[in-house]
Amino acid sequence: MNGSPLTLVVCLGSxxxxxxxxxxxxxxxxxxxxxxxxxxxxxxxxxxxxxxxxRRSGATYTVVTNAHVLQAGDPPYRVQAxxxxxxxxxxxxxxxxxxxxxxxxxxxxAGSVYAIASPGAFPAxxxxxxxxxxxxxxxxxxxxxxxxxxxxxxxVLAKPLEGGYQLGYTNNIKNGMSGGPLLNRQGQVVGIxxxxxxxxxxxxSVFADGSKVDERLHxxxxxxxxxxxxxxxxxxxxxxxxxxxxxxFNQAD
Length: 253
Description:
Layout: E1 7-12, E2 15-20, H1 31-38, E3 39-43, E4 47-57, E5 60-65, H2 67-71, E6 77-80, E7 86-89, E8 103-108, E9 128-133, E10 147-156, E11 167-169, E12 181-183, E13 189-195, H3 215-221, E14 225-229, H4 230-236
Antiparallel strand pairs: 1-2, 3-4, 3-6, 4-5, 5-8, 6-7, 9-10, 9-12, 10-11, 11-14, 12-13, 13-14
């Protein structure tokens, strides 16, 4: 052997494929792997909910979650990154999401580099989606694993409900998964989980403009989980200078 790369020529009809043994194999991260890389835990004194690594600017990371997640606890807030490290987090004062159920936290990591979510386009009804987040556990010593569920977008409202919820999907989400990502097949984040199906309270559904939802549509709404579209987050987030927008993944296998 002279150490030269092995090359095979395969003929398929009129098509010739040249295969080189030295060609690198590209590993494409799965939505499950991406979810594990970008989903964080939001903490106060106790666990509050989930969040998404949205931006990186130098050593500063921005996490998006639900406003109701932060309202469940008092500052100071903390973020537990995918590698288990816990950072003290701050609330940026300049951001205002109005009545949308959205909030952001920021933390600094001088040594570790984390993957950042890749935003996706507004999904259509019937699209396959994956919901991720950390379900709450009652026992303090019980391990809290990331939940990852598959489903599809079942209902897209022409105008959002209160809180900005507009995407209804069949995935099962549990308490604690609020603030976690809703991803498409490419692993892009298309929504932020926030409302479970069959809520304990059966209040009439209301649109963001204050108008009430008719009973037939209300019955469809309560059978689904709901997310705020990622497009809403992008519309309301200020454009940050020197912000890293590329996604970094270090998938070993």
